[in-house]
Structure formats: C-alpha cells, structure tokens
Input
Amino acid sequence: MSGFSSRAIGYSSASIVLIVLSVVMSSRLFLIGGLLCLAVMLLSFSFIPARPRIERDVERNQIFESETLDVGVRVDTRQSMGNLEIYDRISPGLEVRDSSNCAMLPPGKRFFRYEIEAPLRGYHPLGPTSVRRWDPMWLWFLEEEIDNTEQLTVFPSMEARRAKEMLVLRAKQRPGEMRLRRVGMGKEFHSIRDYTPSDPFNTINWKATARTGKLLVNQFEAESVTDIMFLLDARMVTRVGTMVDNPLERSIRFIASVTAGLLQTSNRVGLIIYGSTVSVFKPMGGPSALPTILHTLTNVTPSGYNTLGATVSYSLSYLDPNVPVIMFSPLSEDPTIKEAVKNLIGRGHPLTIISPSGVEFERGVYLGKLTPKYLLKRLSRENLLTDLHSMGARVLDWTPDMDLTRALEEVWG
Output
C-alpha cells in the first residue's frame, strides 16, 4: 500500500499554485518555483528505501503468566537514504512493559528491543511486522507486512510449593505402575551392587558374579501406584469476573501448581475437562507429563453447558477404582451436581471439591452491591456446599479474597 503525508500535499499545492500564477502573470520566476517543487516531489519518491530484511530474536517461546520476555528486532536495508517506520505487532493478550515495539530508523543495519509481559495464559502470536518505507523528506511511503509470525506459549502460573503425596485409602484392584528412577522392589532393572546377607538369593546376578569372582545382586526400580484425577469445569459460567481473575483461571493455576508437586513425588496425574465437550486424559507420569498437562490447560477456553452428571457418567469408565478425584467448579447453573457427587463417592472415589465462588466474582463485577439476587444466590450456594459436605466430600469455598497460596494451604496443608 502506498500513501503520502500532509507535507506532500503542501508541496503539490504549492507547485500547482505557482504554475497557475506563472501562466496568469506571465512570470518566469513562478514557473521555475512550481517546476522546482514538482521536481523535488518526484526526485524524493525515487529515494524510497528498498524492502528491508527483518528478523526477530526471542530468548524463548514458552513462558509462564506474569513473566517478562525480551524481544529484539534486527533490520537490514541495503539502501542508505530514506526512513523506516517499523511496527512489530503483538497479541492483544500481551503488554509492552519496557521500550516500544514501534521504531523510527534510518536504513542500514539497525536493531531495537522491547520487553513484553504475559498477564494471561494462551497461545499468543508475535508478528507480523508492518513496515513503512519513507523517502528522505517524508513525502511518500510504501507500506507492507512481513510475514514473520511466531507463536508464544504462555503457561498458567504455578505456585512454588511442594505438594504432599495423596495416599489412596484402599488398594487399587488394577494398580498402574510407574518407575521412579530409584531403588525399590519393582520389576525394571536399575543397577548392580555387592551382595549383603539380607539380600534374597533370587536377586543374585550369577553372570556378573562369575565374571568378577564376588557375589553381586541386581537392584530394581521402585514403582508408584498412586493416581490423582482432576475434574475441571470449563463451562461458560466459569468466565464470570475479569479476564485475568475468574473461576476458570484460578482453577487452572491451582491444577498447574498441584500437578508440578504431585509429579515431583512420583504420582500420576489425570485430567477431565468438561464444557462444550468432555475430554479425558488418563493418569500419566514421568518427565513428559507436566508439559502435556500444561499445554492442555493452556488451550482451555470457557464454552458450552455440559452438566457434571453427564460428565461423570461418561468418565466413570476411565477412572480406576478408588482413585482420588479433585473437582474444580463454581457449582452454579447445574441441577445434576448432587447426583454426580453421590455417584462418584458411591463408587469409592475420595472427592475433594474446590469451588471458586462465582457468586462472589459476579458481585465484584457489580462493585460489591448487595442485591436481592446476590443474597438469594449466596444462600443457595451455602446450602449446596453444606449438602455436598454431608455426602462425604471435602469442600473448599474459594472466595476472591483468598489467594492461591492460601488455597493450597487449605487443601494441602
């Protein structure tokens, strides 16, 4: 796209006026002035810089919420005359914290940087870069976009806290195995060591013993059989509040924080998400589990109106016997909650319900006004929490004034 500035309009107007006056007044001086203005405009247009080569330097493409990231932009133009106006586009979900993503530069090899902050999880684009190439007198420009788009992944923030291992009260009928990379009574080989009198004879490695001339025994990797299943409510009702602070965002940050701690203690973590659809991720462990769960949580958006009852009915076949379930839901606009909770507990699943109070978040949107509608909703919610507690579920009423650290202490303390 091409364009011109108000200065170009001034030059063209002056050129036309002087040429007209030269004809009317038969003045050679006015004619020379008009032709000179016209020549300056045409000559200036021929000095517009060539299309630059632009490269973006990003120190990493994966960060967590509230982290900052340095972005550098390298511009290389062969021509030495003219001016460049560069605007490196960023996602609306990102904020520029230091310097600017817009720069006015002369041609040549140039570099500028800026710092961005990611207040909200998600997949945010960096780019494309818009470039305006101006002539030396700022009369004409050519505008274009350079397609150098990159994707920045912003994971939900995690509270730096070691979560304690949740213990299953009853042994699982079909326990899953997960190697812990430490010595124990598993089946996978770990290493060889010297024999001690307390070692059973069936662990002696006879080939190694014959080769070295001394008794050596095999060691095996320990295995964990503890699974945790998170149940996340991602319906439309979970978005009440602000973009950064609402029931869904709080639930996701809690799950991310607890998942990191559970995986560190060699548990396996699964995830059920319901909104417009129901997605089930069976318990997983090991080094790849945390990135997989973080990417899954990053991609969650509030949508749909699926009920908890339908979700539980669909997901029960994926739950191993007696696996603990931690549910995150504002517990609003769903008449099937009690029946679903009764179904889970009746199947032997220890249930913890962490409920960000959608009623209180909604009240915050209306500046804390005590309307009759709010009072009725709060009373109904309190009765529901009491009923769920009486069914055997552990319930946490997570109000907006309770931060993540305190909520973690309430559940994991």
